[in-house]
Design brief:
Pathway: Metabolic intermediate biosynthesis; chorismate biosynthesis; chorismate from D-erythrose 4-phosphate and phosphoenolpyruvate: step 2/7. It comes from Microbaculum marinisediminis. The structure is a single chain. The relative contact order is 0.11. The chain has an eight-stranded mixed beta sheet with strand order 1-2-3-10-7-6-4-5, with helices on both faces. A two-stranded antiparallel sheet has the order 8-9. The protein has a two-stranded antiparallel ribbon with strand order 11-12. By secondary structure, it is of the alpha/beta class. The protein contains 13 helices and twelve strands. The protein binds nicotinamide-adenine-dinucleotide (NAD), the ligand O=C(O)C(=O)C[C@@H](O)[C@H](O)[C@H](O)COP(=O)(O)O and zinc ion. The site of nicotinamide-adenine-dinucleotide (NAD) has 33 residues, from helix 2, helix 4, helix 5, helix 6 and helix 10.
Length: 381
């Protein structure tokens, strides 16, 4: 275990152990109040530029500025429209332009204040601005607190697919204030929960079993929520520290994503299907595909689907509103997956709950046949 953990009252600090790029994830219900001091210590005298979305800025912008006040000068606050459609070239150009207008220098810091969309977009902007400035993740959605703010994957989507343009650029600090989640919509909380459950499904069956019994407390807030977030961050920190650039085992964090990203791209990166929902459907499909290949017991797929459905997540392609793509359309999108090697598909498969593994050279014919079986509704194309 390379991720260090320090327990602090009603919260926790997890270290992402990456040598000269190591950083802390500060987790807790009042973590935001410490941001000014942490940023001032990280880059004494530096200015910061805040990138947020309109919803988060309106709800929590004043608290962020109060946390920075008297410690750090805010050079600019840049907002983008909420939602996945902001992870695009046009918004990247606008954000980078605004950072240059504010004369953000190499020694300054960008603060990504929002969900995973803002984190991925602002992180990518920071990666390319003046060939790289440091940034701080202040994640405000459950998904961002348990997954996207950690690990340094940044980027945008294109019509070709999800996150196809981007860079590995680690944050200098992550501050996850769990109280900010109180304003998150139930739908977005559920979407983030899919990535929480993912950590149990990858290699922590005891965590998955705990979630099956305690998810209501996680949704309600309090210690169970903090425990779920800290456990997720520890798991992600451990994987990232061992394989920063996804040369091998980091691909496990992609469980459910090869299918999920294809459905998201087909939906046009709209609110019709948000990332966590696509991951929920994709994880059930990953279990189903593994069962079809004789690698795992079909009962495990049922158990996963039962739990995700219990919290209100979609679990089948037919749950996606607005019609389904054809298997051929999905195969086209899957061929763009970043795990493809010399044209061959790579999938994260399972031998059971908590027993995920990476399989290269998965035959396209097997994937297509499986998709045809699972696209129960009439395709729209
Ligand atoms: N880089 C990574 O490792 C990684 C990991 C997982 C997901 N992602 C990416 O993250 C994105 C999804 O992130 P997301 O689910 O946070 O979506 P998001 O950023 O769109 O946030 C979801 C919605 O919640 C709102 N919101 C955020 N915080 C809020 C708060 N505290 N109160 C009220 N509303 C709030 C936002 O305005 C938005 O409408 C996808 O683009 C996905 O690809 C990246
Ligand atoms: O951090 C990772 O590695 C992940 O795979 C986490 C995923 O939850 C996340 O959605 C990530 O952005 C997907 O990565 P990608 O390389 O498939 O775009
Ligand atoms: Zn994801």
């Amino acid at each position: 275990m390379t991720a260090e953990t320090r327990t602090v009252p009603s919260g926790e600090t997890v270290r992402v152990d990456l040598g000269e790029r190591a950083y802390d994830i500060v987790i807790g219900p009042n973590a935001l109040s410490g941001l000014g001091g942490l940023v001032a210590a990280l880059a004494p005298g530096a200015r910061v530029a805040v990138v947020s979305d309109e919803t988060v800025e309106k709800l929590h912008g004043p608290a962020l500025r109060a946390a920075l006040s008297g410690r750090v000068e805010v050079a600019a606050t840049i907002t983008v429209p909420p939602g996945e459609s902001s992870k695009c070239f046009a918004e990247l150009e606008r954000v980078v332009g605004a950072l240059l207008d504010a004369r953000v220098e190499r020694g300054d810091l960008v603060i990504a204040f929002g969900g995973g969309v803002v984190g991925d977009l602002a992180g990518f902007a920071a990666a390319v601005l003046r060939r790289g400035v440091r940034y701080v993740q202040v994640p405000t959605s459950l998904l961002a607190q348990v997954d996207s703010s950690v690990g340094g994957k940044t980027g945008i989507d294109t019509a070709h697919g999800k996150n196809l343009i981007g860079a590995f650029h680690q944050p200098a600090l992550v501050v996850a204030d769990t109280a900010l989640l109180d304003t998150l919509s139930p739908r977005e909380f559920r979407a983030g929960y899919a990535e929480v459950a993912k950590y149990g499904l990858i290699d922590d069956p005891a965590f998955f079993a705990w979630l099956e019994g305690s998810w209501r407390e996680v949704f309600a807030g309090g210690p169970a929520r903090i425990r779920a977030i800290a456990t997720s961050c520890r798991a992600k920190a451990r994987v990232v520290a061992a394989d920063e650039r996804e040369a091998g085992q980091r691909a496990l964090l992609n469980l459910g994503h090869t299918f999920g990203h294809a459905f998201e791209a087909d939906a046009g990166f709209t609110g019709r299907l948000v990332h966590g929902e696509a991951v929920a459907i994709g994880m059930v499909l990953a279990f189903g595909f593994s069962a079809k290949l004789g690698l795992c017991d079909p009962a495990d797929e049922d158990r996963v689907a039962r739990h995700l459905a219990a919290v209100g997540l979609p679990t089948r392609p037919s749950h996606i509103e607005g019609g389904l793509p054809s298997a051929d359309r999905l195969m086209d999108l899957i061929r763009q997956d970043k795990k493809v090697e010399r044209g061959n598909l790579t999938f994260v498969l399972v031998e059971g709950i908590g027993k995920a593994f990476v399989r290269k050279d998965v035959p396209e014919t097997a994937v297509r046949e499986f998709l045809l079986e699972r696209l129960e509704s009439r395709p729209k194309s």
